[in-house]
Design brief:
α5 packs antiparallel against α6, α22 packs parallel to α24 and α39 packs antiparallel against α40. The longest helix is centred in the N-terminal third of the chain and has 27 residues. The chain starts with a helix and ends in a 5-residue tail after the last helix. With 962 residues, it is mainly α. A hairpin with a 2-residue loop joins β5 and β6. The chain has 44 helices and 14 strands. Helices cover 62% and strands 6% of the residues. It is globular.
Length: 962
């Protein structure tokens, strides 16, 4: 009887966590309760302690009373799974142990257990040479997956479990595809392998299988193209070459190796492996160190000091070792750190991580710790969907992955201790090397870092530096000129390297000519006199500049006009009035000359000193007309490309009227919502800088149009500070220019940004200014927008009668103008106002009408807000289930369009429902998720969430709480 009870319940974790008794699906309760069940199922037949279950649900920050909550979850699960169990009868499925529980189920009752059985049997059959039945079993095993494993579950266990199960599935899928290839199904698997390599471009095995499938399908050129693509990705993303197996397969394809052809006995005997697979550990091992300089020389005392930080060869450090290398710009901090890292890399067999933190980028593009730790998690193989939100959680996952591993971490060009600390390992065996222009005293005082201050080279080291690059004989022939060059460069490695490159490019030039040119250019880079570099650096830069082709030199100078943190190929093309193809060629020339760095594929940055130099040169060598045209093309490109995103991010909303494009300016076009949002995310810092540049450069028309075109992006992503900053900048510019059209739009943008930070009275004042301007211009559509905005602002301030009045007036005009965007929003606002007035029938009628309008035009954005309001009505009416249903539908809509503020807002409401109905843990979970979202953009609603969470904690620990 007991076996029958156990067998009658089936469980699934390879998708959403679900359970069935026979054909009836069981209600497993809240997401947290399902996490407890998942933890037991993933440890099938083995005990899970209460502490482990608490960690699975809440991680490092469990609530007070967590043990009691977990026991409640288990009790509820037992009632669902064994409804006929008597009061004194022991549980059969979820069994109590000394300090926890275990799931006592047959393997066949769990979909993952069935998967593992089939995968193991397939492995045995393959070893016996029975390829066809092995492939059939793997097909059946993979058919049991229902999407993302543990889908919809929160918490650390779900995140790590998803990552592990996803890796298990990928390995099985690769094995199945390999067997299909051995069975001659190369034509059938090409499309699947192409998709798999696209989803996982850093996994080499799918690429090998794709190459072999293409080759056997008679598509040799495409097979080689697949290799080139894989190599390009590995080099660009990780800075490593493909593994031996992939390179060997390329060579065999080039040689048309007969051994790659399909064997004839694949159905009964194991076919010889086409290539030797790379070890799994090698595939997962990051190797991100930049190349060591072949010309590195000197720094013997510093290297000895660094070597003294590690124990003897073969011994492991007993603590985390941190070294902080400080010094002036151009002194060779990075070169020393990378050289030493290569020297000791063999002592860290689990990999080397490297990142340039860009701590002193003059455009403010410093890499935040959140971005850096996500980059490292990606390099360590964590899928993007498994990376938790919030820096603390990301840092915890990062340090957990480094625990018990020996990894070398190089953190280059750090700004300060706060930027570095989240990236430090937490366990012995790892080592961190940090470079910075600043003294990182916090690392030394609080983290035990070993400081090393790097000074310019000694005269002997500088001589050896030049000799490595120019040859001992050339220096010995002109010792006086050599000494002058060393003195003029201040023994600074950066300056010496540029001089040596110039001299090496012209071996027929005497060194005395180089020394004279340095002496003649003594008045260079005045702004840096007494700073990090001497005034001679301008002359050094000028040699690289003058060695460029004329088109590349012109583009280099024009880059000094760009105010953003980095520049893309299309933006650089607009700046130069060039085609994208021409621009890529010129950017390649600048990169090869070390005047530009491609820090991400297709995105380029200037070193801070080179940016100053380029800015000086463009003033000297380009005419005012050429400079103005370059700025006009660049800013117009940003404006018109932002306008192209607007149609996706704010569909059916009124767009700002555009100015005509200048010649040779080709803005981007987008095919999907995701493309538009991704572009805005990537260009955000540049877009903000462009608004300020347009305002300061006397182009107010571009300033306000760019801000207006970013309305949807700023709202969706809750970049309220950027929004308010750019809107006010644009308003000041159009006021100075007495541009009434621009003022009308800019007042509206300032009002929208103020409303986002709850400064409603100021927002109302700006809307009224905008309304007057629209009236004076005879702009009925603009006035309708203002009426609707006033209705919303009065709604937010609790002046409900005025809200209804202005919303009704706006609705009449919107319907007259056939403005479906405005009509949908006004119906929403009227419904919200009526529900606050307690007129629930009127509220429901207007909201249902709003839903019809919004769904007709596909306005998923405002649909999410409307669903949230419907949830609020059901909440007020005491319909808990209907309220929760609408809130979850609203959250889904918010996520579909990337509306982070809307998602946080609705999560707050969802927590309110749970709290009111006596579900404090569910309320806490929702409010914490909302807080995380609000903290991402420093939104003022974060304060409200913190207050609710504090009140909840106080209630849990107050009188009578226990």
């Amino acid at each position: 009887m007991e076996a029958a009870n156990a067998d009658s319940v089936r469980f699934a974790v390879l998708g959403p966590v679900r359970a069935w008794r026979g054909q009836q699906e069981l209600d497993l309760g809240s997401p947290q309760q399902r996490v407890v069940l998942a933890a037991l199922l993933l440890r099938l037949g083995r005990p899970v302690t209460l502490g482990e279950l608490i960690d699975a649900v809440w991680g490092e920050d469990p609530p007070k009373g967590a043990v009691a909550v977990v026991r409640t979850y288990v009790s509820r699960l037992r009632k669902v799974l064994e409804p006929r169990r008597g009061a004194g009868e022991s549980a059969r499925l979820l069994v109590s142990t000394a300090d926890g529980y275990l799931a006592d189920l047959p393997v066949e009752a769990l979909d993952f257990g069935v998967f593992e059985q089939r995968a193991a049997e397939a492995k045995r059959l393959r070893a016996e040479g029975r390829i066809a039945p092995a492939a059939q079993l793997l097909h059946a095993a993979l058919d049991g997956w229902e999407g993302v494993p543990l889908a919809g579950l929160p918490g650390p266990l779900a995140e790590s479990g998803r990552a592990r199960l996803t890796e298990v599935r990928l390995t099985a899928l690769e094995n199945r595809l390999d067997l299909d290839l051995r069975l001659g199904r190369h034509h059938d698997v090409v499309a699947e392998l192409a998709a798999l390599t696209g989803e996982h471009p850093l996994r080499e095995r799918p690429c090998r299988l794709l190459m072999l499938a293409l080759y056997r399908s008679g598509r040799q050129a495409e097979a080689l193209a697949a290799y080139r693509q894989a190599r390009s990705t590995l080099v660009a993303e990780l800075g490593v070459e493909p593994g031996t197996a992939l390179r060997t397969l390329q060579d065999r394809i080039l040689a048309a190796d007969p051994g790659l052809d399909l064997p004839q006995d694949t159905g009964t005997k194991p076919a010889p492996a086409p290539v030797t697979p790379a070890p799994a550990r090698e595939l997962a091992r990051p190797a991100q160190l930049p190349a060591d300089l072949p010309t590195f020389i000197g720094r013997s005392p510093e290297l000895e000091q660094l070597r003294g930080l590690l124990p003897g060869e073969g011994e492991l450090p007993q603590t985390v070792v941190i070294n902080a290398i400080a010094g002036m710009a151009g002194v060779g901090k990075t070169a020393l750190a990378v050289h030493w890292a290569h020297e000791i890399a063999h002592r860290f067999p689990d990999g080397q991580l490297y990142i340039n933190l860009r701590g002193f980028d003059p455009a403010g593009a410093t890499v935040p710790p959140e971005e850096a730790v996500r980059t490292f998690l990606d390099a360590l193989g964590v899928p993007a969907q498994s990376i938790p939100a919030g820096l603390d959680a990301q840092t915890g996952m990062y340090r957990s992955l480094l625990a018990e591993r020996r990894v070398l971490i190089v953190l280059d060009n750090a700004r300060d201790t706060a930027q570095v600390r989240p990236l430090l390992p937490g366990s012995p065996g790892c080592m961190a090397v940090v470079t910075s222009r600043n003294w990182l005293t916090g690392l030394v005082a609080n983290d035990g870092a070993h400081p090393l201050t790097l000074k310019p080279l000694t005269a002997e080291e500088a001589y050896g530096f030049l000799a490595r690059r120019l040859g001992e004989a050339r220096l010995a022939a002109e010792p006086g000129a050599c000494e002058e060059i060393i003195a003029s460069c201040g023994r600074l490695p950066l300056a010496l390297a540029i001089v040596a490159a110039r001299a090496a490019a012209h071996p027929d030039f005497p060194l005395s000519a180089v020394a004279e040119e340095l002496a003649d250019s003594h008045d260079s880079l005045d702004a840096f006199t007494g700073g990090d570099l001497s005034t001679d650096v301008r002359a050094i830069f000028s040699w690289s500049h003058h060695a460029l082709s004329a088109p590349a030199a012109r583009l280099f100078r024009l880059l000094g006009l760009h105010a953003g943190a980095h520049i893309s190929v299309p933006a650089a093309a607009a700046l130069g009035g060039l085609t994208a193809r021409q621009t890529r060629t010129l950017l390649g020339e600048l990169t090869h000359a070390h005047l530009l760095l491609e820090h991400l594929p297709g995105r380029y940055v200037l070193h801070d000193l080179l940016r100053v130099y380029a800015g000086e040169q463009v003033l000297e060598e380009e005419t005012e007309s050429e400079r103005n045209q370059g700025v006009e093309r660049l800013l117009s490109w940003y404006v018109h490309t932002a306008d192209a995103t607007y149609a996706f991010l704010a569909p059916n909303r009124r767009r700002a009227p555009m100015l005509s494009l200048p010649p040779h300016c080709r803005p981007l076009e987008f095919a999907t919502y995701d493309q538009a949002l991704e572009w805005c995310d990537g260009e955000r810092a540049n877009l903000v800088a462009a608004v300020h540049q347009a305002a300061s450069a006397g182009r107010p028309g571009l300033a306000w149009r760019l801000t207006a075109s970013l309305w949807g992006f700023f709202y969706l992503r809750s970049h309220v500070h950027d929004w308010l900053d750019t809107a006010r900048t644009a308003l000041d510019a159009v006021r100075a220019a007495q541009d009434t059209l621009g003022q009308a739009w800019a007042h509206g943008d300032v009002s929208a940004a103020l409303a986002m930070v709850h400064r409603y009275e100021e927002a109302i004042d700006h809307v009224r200014h905008a309304m007057v301007l629209h009236r004076d211009r005879g702009d009925l559509q603009g006035r309708a927008l203002c009426l609707g905005n006033l209705g919303n602002l009065y709604l937010q301030t609790g002046r409900l009668d005025r809200s209804v009045e202005y919303s009704r007036r706006s609705l009449v005009v919107d319907r007259y103008l056939k403005s479906t965007w405005g009509e949908g929003i006004v119906l929403l606002n009227l419904g919200d106002a009526y529900q606050r007035l307690g007129r629930f029938d009127d509220a429901m009628a207007h909201l249902e009408e709003a839903m019809t309008v919004l769904r007709t035009i596909g306005n998923r954005w405002v649909e999410g807000i409307t669903l949230d309001t419907l949830g609020t009505i059901h909440h007020r009416l005491g319909h808990q289930d209907d309220a929760i249903k609408h809130y979850y539908q609203a959250i889904e809509a918010h996520r579909d369009v990337g509306n982070r503020w809307g998602e946080g807002h609705t999560l707050g409401h969802l927590g309110d429902v749970h709290h009111e109905w006596g579900e404090p843990e569910s309320a806490r979970t929702s409010w914490r998720r909302a807080l995380t979202i609000f903290e991402e953009s420093d939104h003022p609603d974060a304060t409200r969430m913190r207050e609710r969470l504090r009140a909840l904690d106080g209630a849990a620990t107050g009188p009578g709480a226990g």
